[in-house]
Write a structure and sequence with these properties.
The complex is a heterodimer. Helix content of chain A is about 85%, strand content about 0%. By secondary structure, chain A is mainly alpha-helical. In chain A, helix 6 runs antiparallel to helix 7. In chain B, the strands form ten sheets. In chain B, strands 4-7-2-1-13-16-15 form a seven-stranded mixed beta sheet, with no helix packed on it. A five-stranded mixed beta sheet of chain B has the order 18-19-20-22-21. In chain B, about 45% of the residues are buried. Classes of the chains: A mainly alpha, B alpha+beta. The interface between A and B is large, with 79 and 65 residues.
């Protein structure tokens, strides 16, 4: 079965699971609001009574930027922590949500309800959390150490470079290699989750090992599917950027339109995320079928 | 092989009073051993009324000799990782300059009595970047002395504007160079410091540079001769220039050398001449520019940016020339420095380095801004040659201000560059244009409380304070001065300052005197407040209120009797009033330590809901002031400094207050921020 067929089947399943997209969007918005609320209050308090507020509608005012940096320079570490904590919590919360997402995609005939979704979340939360813990050293080894090694190798070409070209080429090669490495590890853990959900196995380590064996024999086909969806995500990003670039932003209504466009993009990101699971699940199903 | 040898100008040119040193230097690049072998004849003229007992000489390259040099000591304690210079220098890469002999014309050698001098605070006694050479007998006023110096230098691996990387060389501060003798004070000859540039006397230079034949050479001044030695496989270039105080050169086999002419009649229209002449109140003949030979040495990978380089240089020659006086030299050499030569964005008289990237967005004004800035140093540092060790703002500050003006005239606003892994993605940045003065102001307000602008360069709190103060804060203060005096007056100030101190060594006091004289106002307070002190400047609105005037209650005298107006009757009176009146109160505050002075007042604009406007002003001396108005309309908004004259105001947001708040502008930016936070959240889930 070709990767396009897997993707096609996967996206058909996702199209019937829009409710999950809404759940995930609400969760994303809730966590993001947690971060933005105090920042919004801070800025509103600072400029809403100032004529500077009107100038901000026209575009970024560098005099205002100067004011902001001057006034809030000491708040930067606090804001960084303020952003990091909800992001971390959101990330951990997804180890809980993944059960619900994959469960709902697996049972494509079952109606999506919040109750079913949460039941699946609950059923796999602990296993997926263990899998997440397992992924940390793997990411560290593969991305941390191997990437560092790649850095050292590319460094050999750039260390004594006589022009800027090798730097430009190798820094981009390094970034691409990083993304490819990340994609391999990420793909592996996606399949491990899917496998766990299908087999309901008890030992996460053992199931991860079986997943590795599964992927070993069909690695390139699986990887092409993964990269295809990732590239689709990248394409959506550039479409978003191009249109956002064209949209006016200097009035209340255009701001609203831009906001809606931004949320549409967030939806498309979530759609891509679901497609990763659904298409890979389809690939897994096909692989497991004798 | 053809042998070039042409001598256009006689070396024995008429001696200019401005040049109190004559150099003739013979230097050979030993590419294999990374060495320079040099001979130098220095004739120093004592134009002062002092008897001079010794000569102090800079030996800048000894800063790279060992970790005891002032520069490397300062780098070590700077706690800024990019300045870990000693860590950058590997074994065999140290650089130094070693004097072999210092001979008088009679053949006696003064080297034996010479000693290193390290007088700057804090004392770094083992620094070897300044040498004091006692003279056998004092040099009387009007006399001169000739020293024949033999020297050898180990070229350091490129760092701080000097050295080599592969086959690319840049030579700045490479030869033994006397300090500046100041009448009544003695030698001004500071050590080579991390946070500092240079100071030296005007001179006539004749420099013979010998390099392997494959190298393309660029140097200060004008190429006078070129002689090939086929047997040795070398070429000797002779460069000459007078009325300059430093000499730099570069050599790299990969350079592409392109020459073009700045033809004044093509670049400047009669209308432009007319406009400037009228602003400067000068006759047209004094405004007219001359032609200049522009020489570009560019790396092959940047060849597609040749036009950008010349366009920017032409703009710089044009605007600096029109505003501050014609560029007086015949040539200007623009160097796109060799890769990793650590010499980008640096000025030398008649030669400067720019610097660019392979992929450079057209919307971003880089390398243009660097080219304009470094060329501009020919005016501020080159001709108006202040002491960069002690008053760096006089060149960096004035030149940063001038760069912003020239860039704006030639190119308009800039767009912030966005690059990822060297690939320009400016297309997706917010397209809001900005001007240099806004960036200058940002850096200026951030650093205002750290050090005064006028501080010895090496005695600033750190390199950031040095850079932000002398470049950006000084520039933002000059923009503020321009806003107070008016653009035309400011232009006349700078033109006069350039004219009066061209080929001299001006001080801050000289500049202040010119400001006062040309503007006809005493602006000394301005410099006291902004240049000699480290205070924040911030005026803001403290309170704005508009309340309906209500009839007063209480006992009132009426027809020899007392009448009481109680609450009820007061309300009745208020109701009966045809046109209610409003009492508006505006309180303005001085939140910073810095304050206004002289005849300058803070303007306060009060706009009422009926569209009427009222202007008030305040001397800004006390901590606050209150203004009250009784009008038929409420206040809509109040704004202090409505024209943003005081660019150094650390908080422009609090300069205005609208009674009715608006959130649309806030929403525009917080919604964008919200969107990117949503994305960050989503990225993080990839590993869940």
């Amino acid at each position: 079965m070709g990767f396009l067929s897997c993707f096609q089947k996967g996206s058909t399943i996702v199209s019937k699971r829009v409710k999950i997209l809404i759940y995930l969007w609400v969760i994303n918005v809730s966590f993001s609001l947690m971060v933005i609320a105090p920042i919004h209050a801070l800025i509103k308090n600072d400029v809403s009574h100032s004529l500077m507020g009107d100038r901000l509608l026209e575009g970024l005012d560098f005099l205002w930027l100067g004011d902001v940096i001057y006034k809030f320079q000491n708040l930067v570490p606090m804001l960084a922590v303020w952003l990091a904590i909800p992001t971390l919590l959101h990330m951990l919360f997804y180890t809980f949500l993944n059960g619900g997402i994959i469960g709902s995609l697996k049972e494509s005939q079952r109606k999506v309800t919040l109750k079913n979704f949460l039941t699946d979340c609950d059923a796999y939360a602990w296993k997926f959390f263990k899998l997440f813990l397992l992924s940390i050293p793997v990411y560290f080894i593969v991305i941390g150490l191997i990437y560092r090694l790649i850095g050292q190798i590319t460094g050999l070409f750039t260390k004594n470079a006589s022009t800027e070209w090798p730097l430009l080429v190798f820094s981009n090669v390094k970034t691409i290699l990083f993304l490819l490495l990340f994609s391999v590890v990420n793909m592996f853990f996606d399949y491990a989750k899917i496998h766990l959900l299908f087999t309901r196995g008890r030992s996460v380590l053992k199931e991860a090992w079986i997943t590795l064996q599964f992927l070993f024999s069909r690695f390139f086909r699986a990887w092409i599917l993964y990269l295809f969806i990732a590239l689709l995500g990248l394409l959506l990003f550039f479409i978003y950027m191009e249109i956002a670039y064209l949209l006016p932003k200097n009035h209340t209504l255009p701001i609203l339109i831009v906001f809606i466009w931004q949320q549409m993009y967030i939806f498309s990101r979530l759609w891509i995320k679901l497609n990763f699971f659904a298409s890979q699940m389809e690939f897994y199903r096909q692989g497991k079928t004798p | 092989m053809a042998v070039f040898f042409f001598l256009i100008l006689p070396f024995a040119k008429a001696k200019e009073q401005t040049d109190n040193i004559h150099y003739e230097i013979w230097v050979e690049l030993d590419h294999q051993n990374r060495m320079l072998h040099g001979k130098e004849t220095i004739t120093w003229f004592n134009y002062t009324r002092d008897e001079v007992k010794d000569i102090w000489i800079h030996l800048y390259w000894n800063a790279f000799k060992n970790e005891k040099s002032a520069l490397l000591q300062e780098a070590k304690t700077s706690k800024i990782s990019i300045l870990d210079l000693d860590g950058k220098i590997k074994e065999g890469e140290w650089g130094w300059i070693d004097l072999k002999s210092v001979l008088l014309e009679d053949g006696s050698d003064l080297l034996g009595a010479a000693e290193f001098a390290a007088g700057d605070q804090p004392i770094r006694s083992e620094d070897q970047t300044v040498m004091r050479i006692p003279l056998p007998k004092p040099l009387k006023p009007g006399q001169n002395i000739t020293l024949n110096i033999g020297f050898e230098s180990k070229i350091p691996r490129a760092l701080l504007r000097s050295g080599y990387y592969h086959d690319g060389y840049f030579f700045g501060q490479w030869f033994p160079k006397p300090g500046v003798y100041e009448q009544g004070k003695g030698w001004n000859c500071h050590q080579y410091h991390l946070n500092s540039e240079f100071f030296s006397d005007f001179a006539e230079f004749t420099v013979h540079i010998t390099v392997p034949k494959a190298f393309v050479v660029g140097a200060s001044g004008k190429e006078m001769a070129r002689k090939e030695n086929e047997e040795r496989g070398t070429v000797t270039y002779t460069y000459w220039q007078n009325r300059i105080h430093d000499f730099a050169w570069t050599a790299d086999p990969d350079y592409i050398k392109i020459e073009r002419d700045f033809i004044a009649s093509k670049e400047v229209t009669p209308e432009e001449y007319q406009k400037v002449a009228s602003v400067l109140r000068l006759p047209m003949e004094r405004i007219k520019l001359g032609n200049v030979k522009m020489i570009l040495l560019i790396n092959p990978e940047h060849k597609n940016q040749v036009e950008r380089h010349f366009k920017a240089l032409k703009a710089a020659i044009k605007y600096y020339g029109l505003w501050y006086g014609p560029y007086p030299y015949e040539t200007i050499t623009m160097v796109d420095p060799p890769f990793r030569s650590e010499s980008g964005g640096m000025e030398y008289p008649t030669l400067f380095t720019a610097g660019t990237h392979i992929l450079q967005s057209r919307e971003v004004h880089n390398p243009e801004s660097v080219i304009i800035h470094e060329f501009g140093h020919n005016y501020w540092y080159g001709m108006c040659a202040n002491n960069e060790f002690e008053e760096a703002w006089l060149d960096e500050g004035i030149n940063t201000y001038s760069t912003g003006k020239a860039l704006r005239h030639a190119y308009g606003g800039s767009i912030l560059p966005v690059r990822i892994n060297g690939i320009p993605l400016t297309r997706y940045s917010d397209k809001t244009t900005y001007f240099d003065y806004q960036i200058d102001r940002l850096a200026g307000i951030l650093i205002a409380k750290t050090d005064p602008i006028i501080t010895n360069a090496w005695q600033f709190n750190n390199i950031i304070s040095y850079g932000f103060n002398v470049y950006f804060r000084a520039s933002a203060c000059l923009y503020t001065l321009e806003n107070i005096l008016g653009e035309d007056v400011m232009l006349r100030v700078l033109r006069t300052y350039q004219r009066d101190f061209r080929f001299k060594h001006p001080h801050s006091d000289d500049f202040i005197k010119v400001v006062n004289r040309v503007s006809g106002r005493d602006m000394t307070w301005f410099f006291d407040e902004f240049f000699f002190k480290a205070n924040a400047f911030d005026y803001g609105i403290g309170l704005v209120s508009s309340e309906k005037v209500q009839s007063a209650r209480g006992m009132f005298d009426k027809d020899d009797a007392m009448v009481e107006i109680d609450t009820r009757s007061a309300k009745k009176l208020d109701k009966a009033a045809e046109h209610p009146q409003y009492l508006s109160i505006v309180k303005v505050r001085r939140l910073g330590e810095a304050k206004l002075g002289g005849d300058v007042r803070l303007e306060i604009k009060i706009v009422f809901e009926d569209g009427s406007t009222l202007m008030e002003n305040w001397d800004g001396q006390s901590r606050w002031a209150e203004f009250q108005f009784v009008r038929r309309s409420k206040i809509k908004f109040v704004q202090i400094d409505p024209d943003n004259k005081f660019l150094m105001d650390a908080n422009i947001t609090n300069n205005s207050y609208k009674r009715n708040p608006g959130v649309a502008g806030v929403l525009r930016w917080t919604s964008t921020l919200f969107f990117w936070i949503q994305n960050i959240m989503q990225y993080a889930t990839a590993v869940s």
